[in-house]
Design goal:
The strands form two sheets. This protein has a six-stranded parallel sheet, with helices on both faces. The chain has a two-stranded antiparallel ribbon with strand order 6-7. The chain has 14 helices and eight strands. It has two domains: about 20-190, Rossmann fold (3-Layer(aba) Sandwich), CATH 3.40.50; about 195-385, Dehydroquinate synthase-like, alpha domain (Up-down Bundle), CATH 1.20.1090.10. The two termini are about 35 Å apart. It is an alpha/beta fold. The protein binds nicotinamide-adenine-dinucleotide. The site of nicotinamide-adenine-dinucleotide (NAD) has 34 residues, from helix 2, helix 5, strand 6, helix 6 and helix 10.
Length: about 400
């Protein structure tokens, strides 16, 4: 198969986060805090993580460390600007010198933005939207992912809902990356099957969009292709047998690699739609990505057959021509979404009258230009209508 990575284009690759990976690696947290010299961490999480008993596991570690901590669990899914602002006020009052983010993408993203407000001595997150707003490194951030989906423990992005304008903005800079990510697959065992399915296809979306994005580069391609192999071959087991630690390990590793991939390449139109739906209707991000991945792949297929064929190879599928490989990749993703019981778009009851608005917001999203096939407003409307049939 021919090489389809552009080896002539210059690129820059930075991964400022130290990764500690492995079942039971949460136990390293006290030593990591000691090495970093922090004394007053704010532990940022949400109520679902608390109910799953994960906060107790983390605080049991902290109780043996020479630190004074405070738990802040007021984070909503699709975290809101006011969650960030409240978290920063709590951190200031407590005198936090660092943040421990425990959870899925929502608490981790919120923690990054809380860090931005602390670093800049600011009250509102809106001015830091985009790729150039952040000027100062955030206080030490330690991320403990509990879902295998967003890769936020390693990425430079913080996705926050701008509640006044009902859309999800991104604060993006290597200055908001975690100091250390403690990636312990054991902490993902309690993720319910439906969340495992949605977050898992979210990670697969990161990998496929990163690999096929117009701005992809060799290091992110390598990470993306291995992520596709791991996720495609383990998601169904993780959904049907949540206690299977081998499948959970593969899923966490796949989502970490996919996070590294899209941080350095980009995501594309699947994400543009998912973020728009999350901003307007507060729908779960992973679910929206999962619903639109097969539809966007079908739409894009004509423009990146060679890359989709390589995706098929990473999945372990056999084919004779690139055209056949690309078709098999699209069909395999469609089948996987059915096998893990992901719902169809029409079950979300998004009114057809809103498709034009969803399309307009999606087309304005900066990642639209990374999509391998040009996407105008009318193209987004067409994909939304097809998905709604
Ligand atoms: P989430 O963090 O919103 O969590 C979803 C639900 O699962 C919550 O109710 C949570 O309590 C529960 N949960 C999480 N871990 C659990 C566990 N181990 N056991 C039991 N319950 C558990 O979901 P997510 O998909 O991880 O994150 C979504 C957010 O991340 C969205 O806002 C999305 O925009 C953002 N995101 C960020 C990036 C990034 O690079 N920063 C990338 C993709 C998505």
């Amino acid at each position: 198969m021919k090489n389809n990575t552009n080896l002539s284009a210059p690129f820059s690759f930075i991964l400022p986060t130290r990764i500690e990976y492995g079942t039971g690696c949460l136990a390293k947290l006290p030593d990591i805090l000691k090495e970093a010299g922090v004394k007053r961490p704010l532990l940022v999480t949400d109520k679902g993580i608390k109910a799953a008993g994960i906060v107790d596991k983390v605080t049991a570690c902290l109780d043996g460390a020479d630190v004074t901590y405070l738990v802040f669990d007021n984070i909503e899914p699709n975290p809101k600007d006011y969650n960030v602002e409240e978290g920063a006020a709590v951190a200031r009052e407590f005198g936090a010198d660092s943040i421990i983010a425990v959870g899925g993408g929502s608490p981790i993203d919120c923690s990054k933005s809380i860090g931005v407000l602390l670093a800049h001595d600011a009250d509102k997150i809106k001015p830091y939207e985009g790729k150039t707003g952040v000027k100062k490194a955030i206080p030490p951030l330690f991320t403990v992912p509990t879902t295998s989906g967003t890769g936020s423990e390693l990425t430079f992005s913080s996705v926050i809902t701008d509640t006044a304008n009902q859309y999800k903005m991104t604060v993006k800079s290597p200055l908001i990356a975690a100091s250390v990510a403690l990636c312990d697959p054991e902490l993902t065992v309690s993720v319910p099957a439906s969340v495992t399915a949605a977050t898992g296809v979210d990670a697969l979306t990161h990998a496929i969009e990163a690999y096929t994005a117009n701005c992809s580069e060799p290091f992110s391609d390598a990470a993306a292709l291995y992520a596709i192999e791991l996720i495609y071959n383990n998601l169904e087991t993780a959904v049907n047998d949540g206690a299977n630690i081998g499948a959970r390990e593969a899923m966490l590793m796949g989502s970490m690699l996919a996070g590294v991939a899209f941080s350095h390449s980009d995501v594309a139109s699947v994400h543009c739609i998912a973020e728009t739906l999350g901003g307007i209707y507060d729908l779960p991000h992973g679910l929206c990505n999962a619903i639109f991945l097969p539809h966007m792949m079908e739409y894009n297929s004509c423009c990146c057959q060679d890359k989709y064929a390589r995706v098929a190879r990473a999945m372990g599928l056999e084919f004779a021509t690139e055209e056949e490989g690309a078709a098999k990749a699209v069909a395999a993703v469609q089948q996987l979404c059915l096998d893990v019981d992901l719902p169809e778009f029409k079950s979300l009851n998004v009114p057809e009258e809103s498709f034009q608005r969803i399309a307009e917001i999606s087309a304005r999203n900066i990642s639209t230009e990374s999509n391998p096939r040009p996407m105008a407003v009318e193209d987004y409307v067409a994909v939304l209508k097809k998905a709604n049939q």
